[in-house]
Every structure is written in structure tokens, then in C-alpha cells.
């Protein structure tokens, strides 16, 4: 087998491979979030309440948070390339079940399954992506994968919602199946095999993946993501009640956030390569400023738009840094730990939504950003402290490279074929 050359993002085939991984993430991100746009359609068609239909969102999040690590542990010895296409195949099957499901229970089970595959895919894609590029470009590689998630919020979710409104919610899931099939073909054709330490036992992987330094990084992820979703979950009522906009204008403001989130994720990969720890700290500070601006100037539409743009840049822009730090800190447990990042983010999303709901009921819409501000301030010292976590030495085969923070380590090697 020939070894891939690590020059910049890599040769053309590696660039195509990263694009294929990003496409898979786009499909998965669309499937996760598009459900929000068709909840009322599902509610009417299955004769259930909207709140009951909302359990489909919770089921997916639980699948990511709990099912992802479990499935990753069960498949830890499989080659990452095999795991990628197998995950996409199961994801397609899960969405096919949704297309033909006439029972809410079956649809709920399909969402849990797809959520578990979501975490598995992102973990495997992250480790493969970092193995396709030189060490100094690993953040960009992770950014390209997670950029697919961000782009799905701007393109996939609105289009999927329109399809559902025009042809029925089953057609929305059908479109996900078609896109998933394209991503599967692209993965089989474009993604090369990447050597990994799959020979490690599950126990050995777990010892590294659940090391205190990794858990500390995951805790920072939960806190920072949670602080954002306190406000983001209830951003629409905030825009309507406090900023005083409605209808299409709300969609325009949400689009501002979505577009800048996509830009931020791709840019965040580059900053992660420069200094992931500093990127996280700056991102946390910008979130604090954005929350303060929303609270203080929420009635000024122009300042709110500016705050959303700044928040959008860092909101998902910190994701590559979080993922890169988790993978690096886990060392020989990187394959398992890569899934934990998505799990931690979803724990933060769920916790943030719950706290935001409490703040909304207790203090009113206008005060939700200040609760998010307090949470972001609480996260700041934790995020700051993670910069002192040191990447372990990884005694794996292959040439030694300078790991993040200047610690010697090794990276996977991409192979053709």
C-alpha cells in the first residue's frame, strides 16, 4: 500500500475524500434538524399533539448522547473506512423506516437509531479526516467535516422543510435517503483507508478516552454549548417579543446566524490549527459579549443582527477546536473519544434548552439572554483551564510529529486503496 503524501490539505484524492466526509455530515445534520420544520405535519398526520411529536427531537439527541458511544465501543475494532460506509448504510435504512412508518413508536425508534449513527459517523469521520492531512492541518480537516453540519442548517433544513410542506413529511425523509445514498457512493469511491490503532482493546481505548483530561475537555464542551442553547432555543420568541419583528424577518435573522455559523466552522478549523485552546477562549469571550448585547440592546434590530453575526461566527466555530482537543487529549483512545465530543455537545444542547425553558417561564423572554450570559461566564474559567491539559505521547507506529501544544505524538497514516 502506498502512503499518502501530507502536503497542505493533501493530494486531490484526499481533498475529494474530505468533501465526501463533509457531504455525509451535511446529510446527517439535515436529518437531525429538519424534523423541527415538519413537526406540525407529523402531528396532524399521526394524530398526536405537537408536544408529543417533539419527542422525536429528544429521541435523536438521546441517540447521539448515549447510543453513539455505545455503538462506537461495539465497533471499535472495525476499520474506520468500513465503519463510515456501514454507518451511512444504516442511517439510510433508518430514514427509510421513517418514510414508510405509520406508527409513532416506530418513527421514534428510527430517530434513536439515526441519532446513534450520527455520533458514530462524526467520530469516525473526524479520525479519518485527521489521518488524511498533515498534523498542522488537522483542525481544517475537522472543520470541513463539521462544516457539513453547519451548511445543513443554511441549505438542507430550509429545503427539507419546503419539500415536506409541499409533498408531505415522508418526502422530507425520502430526500434525506437520496442524499444519503449519494454520500455513501462518494465515501466508497473517494475515501481511502486510514490506518488506525484498531488493535487496542475496548478497555484500553476506554482508559484513554475517559481519562480525566478528556473528561475535563468534554465538561467545557457541555458548559459552553449549553450556555449558547439557553438563548438559541428560544431565539425566535426573543426576536418576536423583544426585537419586535415577525414573519419573514425572523427567518432573515435566523439566516444571518446560520450563514455566519457556516463561515465560522470552516474558519474555526484554521484557527484550531494555529491554537485550539486560544480559539476556545476567544470564542467563549465573544459568546459573553453577544449575550450581553442581546440583553442590553434586544430592541434594536440592527444591533441584534450584528450580535447574531458575531455569535454565529464563534457558536459553531469553536467545534473544530473542541473536537481536535478531545481527539488529541485521548491519545490511543482517539477512536472512541471522537464520538464523545458529539455526545457532550448534545448534552449541552439538552441542558441549555431545559435551562432556557426555565428562564423563559420564570423571568420572561427578555431575560433569557442574561441567563445565557451567566452560564457563559461560568464556562469561561473552565475553558481557560483546559489550555493547561497536555496531549499524551502516543507510542504508535509511524513517524513522530509535533502534537498540539508542542507535545510529541503520532498521527494516523492515510493509505491509497
TrEMBL record:
<keyword id="KW-1133">Transmembrane helix</keyword>
<feature type="transmembrane region" description="Helical">
    <location>
        <begin position="141"/>
        <end position="163"/>
    </location>
</feature>
<dbReference type="Pfam" id="PF07690">
    <property type="entry name" value="MFS_1"/>
</dbReference>
<feature type="transmembrane region" description="Helical">
    <location>
        <begin position="16"/>
        <end position="42"/>
    </location>
</feature>
<feature type="transmembrane region" description="Helical">
    <location>
        <begin position="169"/>
        <end position="194"/>
    </location>
</feature>
<feature type="domain" description="Major facilitator superfamily (MFS) profile">
    <location>
        <begin position="17"/>
        <end position="393"/>
    </location>
</feature>
<dbReference type="InterPro" id="IPR050189">
    <property type="entry name" value="MFS_Efflux_Transporters"/>
</dbReference>
<dbReference type="InterPro" id="IPR020846">
    <property type="entry name" value="MFS_dom"/>
</dbReference>
<dbReference type="InterPro" id="IPR011701">
    <property type="entry name" value="MFS"/>
</dbReference>
<keyword id="KW-1003">Cell membrane</keyword>
<feature type="transmembrane region" description="Helical">
    <location>
        <begin position="336"/>
        <end position="364"/>
    </location>
</feature>
<feature type="transmembrane region" description="Helical">
    <location>
        <begin position="48"/>
        <end position="71"/>
    </location>
</feature>
<keyword id="KW-0472">Membrane</keyword>
<keyword id="KW-0812">Transmembrane</keyword>
<feature type="transmembrane region" description="Helical">
    <location>
        <begin position="370"/>
        <end position="389"/>
    </location>
</feature>
<dbReference type="InterPro" id="IPR036259">
    <property type="entry name" value="MFS_trans_sf"/>
</dbReference>
<feature type="transmembrane region" description="Helical">
    <location>
        <begin position="83"/>
        <end position="110"/>
    </location>
</feature>
<feature type="transmembrane region" description="Helical">
    <location>
        <begin position="247"/>
        <end position="266"/>
    </location>
</feature>
<feature type="transmembrane region" description="Helical">
    <location>
        <begin position="278"/>
        <end position="297"/>
    </location>
</feature>
<protein>
    <submittedName>
        <fullName>MFS transporter</fullName>
    </submittedName>
</protein>
<dbReference type="GO" id="GO:0005886">
    <property type="term" value="C:plasma membrane"/>
</dbReference>
<feature type="transmembrane region" description="Helical">
    <location>
        <begin position="214"/>
        <end position="235"/>
    </location>
</feature>
<feature type="transmembrane region" description="Helical">
    <location>
        <begin position="303"/>
        <end position="324"/>
    </location>
</feature>
<dbReference type="GO" id="GO:0022857">
    <property type="term" value="F:transmembrane transporter activity"/>
</dbReference>
<feature type="transmembrane region" description="Helical">
    <location>
        <begin position="116"/>
        <end position="134"/>
    </location>
</feature>
